[in-house]
Amino acid sequence: MVQASPTDGASQATPPRRWAAAWRRCTPLGVDSLAERCGVTVYGRDIYTEPDGDPDTLANLGPLRPMAGVWEGIKGSDEHPVSQGAEKDAFVEHYELHPIDRQTNGPQLFYGLRYHTHITKPGEVETFHDQVGYWLFEPAAQAVTLTLGIPRAQVLLASGPAGPDATEFELTATVGSEVYGILSNPFLDDAFRTLSYRIHVTINSDGTWSYEEEGVLEVRGRDEPFSHTDRNTLTRIGPPELNPLARAARQQADDGQGDGSLGIGSLRMTGERL
User: Fold this and answer.
1) Exposed site from 66, 112, 158, 217, fewest CB < 10 Å?
2) Which residues of the chain form CATH 2.40.128.20?
3) pTM (2 d.p.)
4) CA distances (Å), 92 to each of 98, 121, 125, 197, in order?
5) What's the pLDDT band for 8 if we cut at 50, 70, 90?
6) For the chain, how many helices (H) and strands (E)?
7) Mean of the pLDDT values across residues 188-202?
8) Where are the alpha helices (DSSP H) in the chain?
9) Which contiguous run of DSSP H or E holds residue 237?
10) DSSP label at 171?
């Protein structure tokens, strides 16, 4: 659930001028708060002061914590459009997700995982799909955001609500949105225009995690949109790497120079980020 800052003295029905464009872009009728309209947290009028955060990203990933590590999925399924209709393919996936240091946009704070997934068809070497980006958890908003980039010259930003203990969450993006949207190269936009994107993640009780994703395509020459789907279940085959700050804290503790906490005094200097 998204939250509005209690320190913001302005009425939620009258957003600051800097929010006006976003307010208009994502305003359904009958909804009064910016948080409800746009799915964002209003942090207040101070857009510069950064929170201290925690050096230990793994401990603050919320619903993304069980996804950290190196994973393999051998029963992937893909359905995509071909000239005569649709085609289904099985695939094998190698998926790595490693913590990054906390990230801030002024008062906004993210903890995240940098990821790379590489997919082939069973028994083949040639790449079937390759994808990079970040999974980000925003504690104040209780939301997860996915950045996605593929070497077919296409990117997107998808987001959705997720509490820190959530075992299921769904993220979405829509073409034309200036906040959680989809951008494609001119050929893809003309021939296979992605109208929307959705990914549903389930953290399973046996330690695996699963996803089901759908891209709704407007395919040139077809009367109806096509649902391009992928799904897989991933099993951990290796641990995550520590983020740089956590790695430094552990090294400091191992060297007997502290408790491994990397206190704020060792992380920041006045007016300058170390």
Assistant:
1) 66
2) 58-238
3) 0.82
4) 20, 6, 11, 22
5) very low
6) 5, 14
7) 98
8) 20-25, 34-38, 186-191, 244-254, 264-267
9) strand 226-238
10) E
